[in-house]
Amino acid sequence: MTLHEIDTLPESAWLAALCALPGLGPARLRGLLVTHGDGRSAWAALVGNGPIALDRVGSDTITQWRTVARRYDVADRWSALQQLGIRVLRPGDDEWPRRLQDDPDPPVILFATGVALDTAPTVAIVGTRRGSAYGRRIAWEFGAGLASAGVRVVSGLALGVDGSAHEGVFTQRHGAPPIGVVASGVDVVYPKRHRSLWGRVGTEGTLVAEAAPGTTPEPWRFPARNRIIAALADAVVVVESHENGGSLITVDEALERGVLVGAVPGAIDSASAKGTNRLIADGATPILDVEAILQLIGHTPGSSPSADVVNSPETDQPALGATSEQVIEAIGWSPVLLEHVCLRVDLDPSTVALAIEGLVATGRCVRSGGWIERVAS
What we know:
Elements (H helix, E strand, L loop, with lengths): L2 H6 L2 H9 L6 H11 L2 H9 L11 H13 L2 H10 L3 E3 L20 E5 L7 E5 L6 H16 L3 E4 L5 H9 L9 E4 L12 H10 L1 E4 L11 H11 L3 E4 L8 H10 L3 E4 L10 H8 L3 E2 L3 H8 L24 H10 L4 E2 H7 L4 H13 L3 E4 L2 E4 L3
Helix pairs in contact: 2-4, 2-6, 3-4, 7-8, 10-11, 14-16
């Protein structure tokens, strides 16, 4: 790196370089900046054997940082970020989210791809990765309805509820673009099964990360990511959550920030609804439809939430016969046993069992052990 290159690099380049050091999260980055004043000075101290003193950071870690920093070409990496279209956002930038301006634990920088962050209303749709077909369908419908109403849907791009919400968003031809907040670099897809969805969010929507490009996900990065999801949202809506689910971390972060919290009620005997039902019992707003979410954030859409739907989970499936229609309605959207269905319809048990076999064969339902569950698509 030449002296000219060093002199012309912006502060963002030095902060991005610091973020690329192994295990250097937001708290440690803030500590370096407090000690050294700016990113360039902190980097110079690392490379030049200057004093580095951070709470709970051992000498082995600092030695590792020095080794990596001395091999790292800041100017070259900065040029690569620009060529890849990865934006580095700092407080004070035009695109820096206004919701982060007074945040109790704001990120120092953010990496972003896709369309710019703006002041449009936002709602975080979060939930368990092990959601039921019911939960995934509700998340899908909320994503579609909110996007059509001009609300940007925020999620963590996880399996289950998060991904289903963003899939719903993309059914809207002119809907508000989604926001994905990830726990890795914006170029490191996780989970791998969401590669296609990740790509769409990163181009047609906005992909946001606190970690530098190239960073792989580590367990500690997910709770840190959840605080940004909460901070970017006007409201957090939990679709499904187990009793101690990770979504409840996002709820705690939302409550700390005064962000509204809503939850979708579920069956009292469903493990994936224990968290949401408890939230409602503790005072969260019950969410029964998209309109309830819009009322929660005080948003009046300029157009009908149902306009411009490309496909719905029920599209392109053949019509059911009267008996099968009656049985599938009796199954509902929570896992049930055959005995439950029989109690809900005035049909012979053998007729119910035969109808369920047909629903499973055509992909309308799935069976897990003795439990039967309706499928959203």
